[in-house]
Input
Amino acid sequence: MSIIVDVAKYLSLEGAPKRIKDYLSIEVADHAYLPKTEDIKSDWVAYIAAPAFKLIREKQGKDIEAFASIGTGSGIDVLTAIELLGATRVGFTDLQKSVVATAAQNIRNNVQKINSIDFEFGDGDLLQPLQNGKRKFNVIYENLPNVPLANDTKIEDKRNSGHYLEKRSETIPAFVHEQMLDLHYLALKQAKEFLAEDGAVYSTLGGRVPLSAFIKLGELAGLKSEIFTYSWKVQAEPEDVISGYAAQEKAGLGPFHFYRANDLQKAFANVSVKESGSRAFEIEKALDSSKLTATEAYEAFKQGETIGHTVAVLKSSTR
Output
């Protein structure tokens, strides 16, 4: 599947992009997550990652050198990092070879000056495909799935990028598993050896569990974590995702938090990206009376209501 992306609109730029093409021509592999480029408020990169990247660049006061994406999908997140962070060395991974190959081609085809970018990429689990390079990254970005696949489903069966294979050889702390944060924990554990001295991992996390759980997630992985930005989005693929969380609640996990979109819009109406991280716990508390369990949210969705969830960008570093 091919899509065309108007970069200025997609990334809310004031002018034309400086490092990537004005219009991206993106091929989405059969098993990659399909970007929601026609509904930016549902799109993880445009609505959540891009504002965070702009804030990273502002706080750094200079371009960052090296960026890595875990589970890149179509490669749009890497192109966004090249444009907004000024990254000149990029690493990216995904689980399947066809997805990584397509992402690599997308990135090559849509950078203005391809010779200015150094690439490292591979298919496989989390950051492991980048181990041969032994080079460090200033920013590691991850937006990994939370919902496990059904036992009789294979990752290759369809576009299953919003799910993951639950069986792992690593030990997952019970707390992490109960919050359905398994892959995020494993990514943070691996990331420690890939971080530059001043580097950080930025995890985009659907706030379907308390914010305190995200802070504890970082601690359990051996990192120091803080809420970098806090926002909300309409639940993409609601039938699949909300029902998946409801099933996990029924199995004894959770409860998980969802909200009616109108309630989220009101709560975040006067919150800027820059102040959102420091106000995150305040906003979460204000939303307390409006939260729905996944089971309640699924019933509301079936009645025609628009359901959303909060989103935290968790910054985790070694210091």
